[in-house]
Here is the input.
Amino acid sequence: MNILFLGDVTGRTGRAAVVRRLAGLKKQYAVDFTVINGENAAHGKGITSSIYHELMDAGADVITLGNHMFSKHEITEHMDECPWLLRPGNQFPLTPGKAALVRECLGHRIGVINLSGSIFMDSISESPFMTMERILKEMDADVILVDLHAEATSEKELFFHLFRDRLSAVIGTHTHVQTADEMVLDGCAYISDVGMCGPYLSIIGRDIKEVTARMVKGERTRYKPSEAPAVICGVLITVGTDGRAVSIQRIQERPI
Ligand SMILES: [Fe+2]
Ligand SMILES: [Fe+2]
Here is the structure.
C-alpha cells in the first residue's frame, strides 16, 4: 500500500497547487491513501470548512492540522461536518475535534494521529509522549501514522525512537522546510519535516516584504501569505501487508 503525505498547505497558491497536482501525483505514485496537513490553508493560518471540502474533493482521505488549527474560528462550528479532520490532541483548547481516527483502505484499518510538539510551541496541554500513550491504548488499526507538528527536531527524533515499534510512520510537520533525513527503521518510516505545499519564494510561506518590515524594521505588520507560485512537498510511504513501512521517498516539486 502506498500512502502519500503532503505537508502544510499554505495560502491560496498552496491550495491551488495541491488541487492541480494531487490527482496526477496519486496516479504517478500509485497512491492508495492520502493525508494532507491543512493548518495554513486559509490565508496562511487555519482552515475553513469550505477549504476542508475543497481538499477532500481534490483527493485527500484525512486532513491534519497544527498550532493554527482554530485561527479561522468558523471551522470550530463545523467540525461535525468534517469527519476526516484531525487536530493536535495535546493543544489547548482541547475541544472541539479529535486527534485520532481510523479509516478503511484496501481492507486495512489505517489509523492517523495528530499531535503537537511541546518545545517552542504555545498552548500545549501535555507532552506528546503522554498523549500518544493514551491514544495508542485505544487505537485498533493495522497501519498507524502520526503527524507530529513540532518545532524541535530533537523532540521529533525522540518521539520516533520511543514509539517506532508500535507505529508505521512518524511524519514531522510545522517548520515548512523539508529535511533530508528520511529513513525506515524496523518497519517505521520517519522524516523530521515533510516541508510545505506553499509559496516557494517566501519566508516559510509568508510575504518577504511583510516579514522584512516586521523583522528588520520592527514595524507592526499583519500576516500576509506570499502570492508566489507554490512548491509541493511530501513523502510517499510504502507499507507492507503486515502494516510495517518498507520505504519512504521524499517528493518535492518546485515551481522554478
Ligand atoms: Fe504550518
Ligand atoms: Fe504550524
User: Anything to note?
Assistant: The two ends are 31 Å apart (CA to CA). The first helix runs from residue 11 to 28. The CA atoms of residues 98 and 123 lie 17 Å apart. The chain has one domain: 2-253.
